[in-house]
Amino acid sequence: xxxxxxxxxxxxxxxxxxxxxxxxxxxxxxxxxxxxxxxxxxxxxxxxxxxxxxxxxxxxxxxxxxxxxxxxxxxxxxxxxxxxxxxxxxxxxxxxxxxxxxxxxxxxxxxxxxxxxxxxxxxxxxxxxxxxxxxxxxxxxxxxxxxxxxxxxxxxxxxxxxxxxxxxxxxxxxxxxxxxxxxxxxxxxxxxxxxxxxxxxxxxxxxxxxxxxxxxxxxxxxxxxxxxxxxxxxxxxxxxxxxxxxxxxxxxxxxxxxxxxxxxxxxxxxxxxxxxxxxxxxxxxxxxxxxxxxxxxxxxxxxxxxxxxxxxxxxxxxxxxxxxxxxxxxxxxxxxxxxxxxxxxxxxxxxxxxxxxxxxxxxxxxxxxxxxxxxx
Length: 376
Hints:
single chain, HIT family, subunit A
């Protein structure tokens, strides 16, 4: 007899959001219009992270009705309706500035809660210094891999999705093949409604691929299927042209079970910086050219101040403090009179080569200058 599957219905949380008590503000991003807060609910021993983010504008919400449509019902929510409250700040010639409050339907704020939050979650959402690490294959084996094996986030929530124990109703598409299959569903960063800010995750069914470092030529069928099937599903479900999508991996990822991020190229999505993201197309191409590319490549990634992995790398090489360039810099040794000619050239050949370098580095004289220059 099969195990009973947990209901996919939305469950009531174990906390009441209105009872959140603030400890401190972790980040306040004025560009993205989001703020991350650290606090508690009923149990002061358990930390909670609450992220508040203004919803992206939907193009349908700025639509206006023609006079003939105004009497029809029901009306769609719009910023330009009779419910709009307007407070004029100033009007100067052709310029006007106002504070407006739209209807209640358009005033929602997206709220994400992580509870109980671990130190890793607090670190992730905090403002701190960032450092670029250049991870060679040797450093990965000696430092990164042992660290992530012993101290990564729990993957229970990922397995709940893959086993249909949670979030089953949110699945956009699934390929159940154990080798090349995956589940496509909305990322927590997306409100699930505004197509303009669409953000999906493709989570593979295979459990033995932690990150880019584990990928090799044997995974090409999986990656190609992930790319094409995702494009087809998104085109069918959301009507988005596949050529308007970016698909990429993070390195380092926030959790170590292979997953791809998908969002429209016109969106300024989190984590799309060159030191963080690796395009799926590029990953496939690299593996086609060299099946063990990601076992041989040096991969840069960013670590935040306070991360224990940063401390481990600091023991290997200076990262936080770079030795100042001063009098202790290595100076080129002066050649002795009887030193061997460099590069195997004779003294005459060295002199000729040096003359050529000087000539190449010297701008051509003008015609007037050339008449007064001394000849060698």
